[in-house]
Amino acid sequence: MSSTAIVSTTSASARRRRPDLTPYLLVAPAVALIVLIYGYPIVRIFIDSFLSPTKTGAKTVGVANYGFAVNDPVFWKSAGNNVFLLAGVPLMTVLALLFAVVLFDQIRGWRVYRTLVFTPYIMAVPVIGATFVYLYGFNGIVNTLLRDIGLGGVAQDWLGNPTLVMPSILSVVIYRELGFGVMLFLARMASIRLELYEAAEIDGAGWWARLRYVTIPQLRSVIGFFVVIELITMLSWVFAYVYSMTGGGPGFASSVLELYIWKNAFAYRAIGIASAVAVLLLVATSVLIVVQLLVRGGESETGEE
Amino acid sequence: MRTTMVRFGGLLAAASIVLSACGSAASTPAPTPAATTAATAPTDSASTAAVPTNAEPVELTYWYWAESDAPGADKWMADSVAAYQKDHPNVTIKVVPQATDTLQSAFQTAAASKSGPDIASQWATGPVLGFVWSDAISPISDLVPADEIKHWLNTSENTYQGKLWAMPMYLLGIGMAYNKELFVKAGVTPPTGDRWTWDEFLAASAKLKAAGITPFVGGDKNGYLGAWWFANLGGQQLDSEADLVKAVVGEASFTDPKYSGWYTELEKLVKAGYINNDVMSLDLDQGVRQFYQGKGAMAFTSDGMLASAIKELGADKVGVMRPPKWGTGTLADAGNATQSISFFVTKWSQHQQAAADFLQYLHTPERLTEWYKATGVVAADDRFDSTLVTVPQLQQMAKFETTGQQTWLENWIPSQLDGDGDLPAGQLIFSGSGTAADAGQLWERVAGTWRAAHPDELANWQGLLK
């Protein structure tokens, strides 16, 4: 090997060892910004969950804030209410699917129905909450209608009764979020190849069989997406519903974790406890996402849509 | 799925940003107040004298809250600022109205960073003292002369360690309005004195109910009807506010009937059907509005609510009495008037004297008269011209509010105990989902949680007993 060849080989090797940093430098500002915006607050909350504010600053209290939270019955009541709302996701998904299928068949007036179903989703939650406060009041519109048609015995204090308040709130969440699911499903259904339906019809498939063996399998990824979004909503996006309709009452019957965090952080000067619960909520939500990713990953490997 | 993760990240980040903003502030060691002006010796009439136009420019920021208590207060403040600035051309006052829900949290953030308004508003006693203890307030008694302060009413609500920390502006009390026409219909006679005994109240309620009339109307969806019952019955077995503080700090128990026995009486009212059946569907003021509409014979009322009732129902149909006497403690005879909101000068303000001068100006007789004209609420000042109150029922309310000992119990508990104990406990009773014993246990549990989570605050509250 000549010396020239040696030099050439050495510089090529050096080039291999020294990766081109230009792309990294170009994206560095964006990455730094993302870390600052997304990463710092999460790290800050994690740190704050181990601190307790005092007059002279903050002192480290170990896991005491977590201890306060898990020993507080209101925390568990709030978490239980979030779990109750989670259980509403399958119902909401099925309803959204049914509405989408019916609208996709372009029944008479389907455009009007589509608009009606989607409209709540673009309305502000406090507006919807305030509206349902009037609808669900003991002497509100729902009960007045029930009484007028001779069903006065069914009339209840929908938001003032501790047993009924969470189902009532769930119904409002479903009312609003349903439109999002219907639009997602309709958009995906519009892109399903017609040949699949034609083939199914040639094979003698009826409405139900087409739904069961063509539509739903084709919608699987969108349904998965919708479910994940709604799970996140039920865990960490229902504050506005609860705050505007009940404030967490009666008693703590409709308290949710977000409200618990908000009260501790902003009303009770207990930022450490609020941060600890925020971390727990973050972990719970992350677990849900990871499970969903694992399930979806498994589906991809088996070749399913 | 990437979209899902991005949205998920966005959700978390949004929540995190909000919390960390607050958390960081709370956990950052308090900086030394920058350029805090030492309290200069209080000067007489500094507020009313016009100053030369070439005086040093002063900009004051005022975080102001009063409109919710006294509709018309915002306009009055705007007029007051305009008039003051005209006489003091070097002074500019920026009034920032505050929302009820964030009144405490917003100032908490300011206090943590030792920056923000020059003048701020907080509810009396507990909330004010909380910020005194976090070193956010300068005592107003160091800035305003004693012969001015002596005219202010209910100053005991914000007096601590020999200093007055905040200025009262007005007095709010809770009376019990009654519908004379419905009383006559049910054969109920109003009290001969200024109030009924509890048994007389129950007897009257029974007669009203028998006549098909809802005896008492209110709304507790937001928890405040329960809080008003607490303010009126909750202290009637106590001899002083210190008795209540003893239970707060753990020297007594809220499960003791002395503290929570009154819930048994409230439970009786609910079970007997003496309270409107939609009480849990309505907020406090919505419930009182039912009284204006003649849907109930009695309701708790503030001065403003009473004025509205007179306007709606007619002066000849509305009467007012003090809430009934049930207990045997010294406080059973006390009135329930409070200054509600209090105004104070912040520790970090660079213009403390100028801020205090403006507050003092708000108590000039001319401003007090304008206050009443704008709001119909009695001013917390013995120079207030009581002849301005011409409606007999409102005169009676004013008399209730300014005669004898006054105490507003809600001022004497930490906000966590109020929000997680007082308000939900009433809801347990009104919704029928809990008993009086449950209510007492709830108070005790929340007090225990507060004591464990806030040892520094506990020490401060214990200091109130010394």
How would you sum up this structure, described in words?
The complex is a heterodimer of chains A (305) and B (466). In chain A, 73% of the residues lie in helices and 3% in strands. Chain A is mainly α and 305 residues long. The relative contact order of chain A is 0.12. In chain B, strand 1 (58-64), helix 2 (73-87) and strand 2 (91-97) form a beta-alpha-beta unit. The longest helix of chain B has 26 residues, at 2-27. At the A-B interface, helix 2, strand 1, helix 11, helix 13 and helix 14 of A face helix 1, helix 3, helix 17 and helix 18 of B.
Q: What composes the largest sheet of chain A? A: 2 strands, antiparallel
Structural class of chain B: alpha+beta
Are there runs of chain B of 5+ residues with pLDDT below 50, and where?
A: 1-41, 43-48
Morphology of chain A: flat
Arrangement of strands in the largest sheet of chain A = 1-2
Q: Would you tell me the overall average pLDDT of chain B?
A: 89
Distance between the termini of chain B: 62 Å
Rg of chain B (CA only): 23 Å
**Distance N to C terminus of chain A:** 56 Å
Provide the succession of SSEs of chain A: HHEEHHHHHHHHHHHH
As a percent range, the share of helical residues of chain B equals: 40-55%
Strand content of chain B: 5-15%
Helix content of chain A: over 70%
Oligomeric state: heterodimer
